[in-house]
């Protein structure tokens, strides 16, 4: 589930602007966006992003991901979250990666749990999704935790 976006977001111009914004964020070290590509066809099937990077004493970020609905259940999100979590610790030098998942999103919960993320609690009205403030389960992984 996603936030409400303006209609222009789904146009070629809107996507180009989003990609340019993501490139600036990456260059500044504030976010690390990645495409998820199908190995057999090379088709872009999703994205995973380390965002909200905070340095200093916290060394934390959030992770978000999505896969095209037609490719759900094939392990793309699970594999990608694992790879990008490794990148967060080994390349970006972060200490903690945090995921927020709506409690009713069982598939996304499986993705983080399969990657070793631990449940840390419920954040009430955490993010505005599709026009409503939604509760989210908070999961986290730190550099000390073993990656599966």
Give a description of the structure.
The chain has 148 residues and is an alpha+beta fold. It has a single domain, classed as Gcn5-related N-acetyltransferase (GNAT) (Aminopeptidase), CATH 3.40.630. It is 27% helix and 36% strand. It is built from 3 helices and 6 strands. The chain has a 6-stranded mixed β-sheet with strand order 1-2-3-4-6-5, sandwiched between helices. The radius of gyration is 15 Å and the shape is globular.
Topology:
Layout: H1 12-27, E1 32-37, E2 44-54, E3 60-67, H2 76-90, E4 96-101, H3 106-114, E5 118-129, E6 132-142
Parallel strand pairs: 3-4
Antiparallel strand pairs: 1-2, 2-3, 4-6, 5-6
The secondary-structure element order is HEEEHEHEE
Helix count equals 3
Task: Indicate how many domains the architecture comprises.
Answer: 1
CATH class: Alpha Beta
Q: Please outline the major beta sheet.
A: 6 strands, mixed
Radius of gyration: 15 Å
Poorly predicted ranges: none
The percentage of residues in β strands lies in 35-45%
Fraction of residues in helix: 25-40%
Summary of the model, kept short:
With 148 residues, the protein is an alpha+beta fold. 27% of the residues lie in helices and 36% in strands. The chain has a single domain (7-142), classed as Aminopeptidase, CATH 3.40.630.30.
Sum up the structure in keywords.
six-stranded mixed β-sheet, Aminopeptidase, single chain, alpha+beta, 27% helix, 3 helices
